[in-house]
């Protein structure tokens, strides 16, 4: 505890600087946490889009579209399309489907 006689302009400045430093540190921590959460969300979105593109490429190929055209449409290389076409089809049941098993 600080006594009334110990309060000086210098002490007030020091206490204000310490307070500002604590606020800044907390604000930075919260900002970093928010960015981390946004990054994780973006990573999940990218994975979903990649899976969708892979499935779409397979469907387009099954319907007779040439690999070169699929690559052009999806903006990837022909080699990427061929690698996607070699991937096994993975079926992930929904919660609703689990109830019927």
Sequence-ordered SSE layout with sheet pairings:
Blueprint: H1 9-62, H2 67-74, H3 78-86, H4 95-100
In brief, what are we looking at here?
The protein has 101 residues and is an all-alpha fold. 76% of the residues lie in helices and 0% in strands.
Please name the defining characteristics of this protein:
101 residues; elongated; mainly alpha
The biggest beta sheet is recorded as: none
Give the SSE order as H and E letters. HHHH
- Please tally the helical runs, counting DSSP H or I stretches of 4 or more residues: 4
What are the segments in which pLDDT stays under 50 over at least 5 consecutive residues? Answer: none
**If you average the pLDDT, what whole number results?**
88
Beta-strand residue fraction:
under 5%
How helix-rich are the residues, as a percent range? over 70%
Please tell me the total number of domains.
1
Q: What's the end-to-end separation, in Å? A: 67 Å
Provide the gyration radius in Å.
28 Å
Number of strands: 0
Overall morphology: elongated
Structural class, by secondary structure, is mainly alpha
């Amino acid at each position: 505890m600080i006594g009334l006689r110990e309060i000086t302009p210098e002490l007030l400045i020091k206490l204000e600087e310490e307070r500002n430093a604590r606020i800044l540190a907390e604000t930075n921590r919260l900002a970093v946490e928010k960015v981390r959460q946004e990054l994780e969300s973006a990573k999940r979105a990218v994975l979903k889009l990649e899976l969708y593109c892979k499935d779409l490429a397979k469907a387009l190929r099954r319907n007779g579209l040439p690999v070169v055209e699929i690559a052009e449409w999806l903006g990837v290389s022909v080699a990427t399309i061929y690698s996607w076409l070699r991937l096994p089809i993975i079926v992930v049941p929904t919660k609703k489907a689990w109830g019927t098993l």
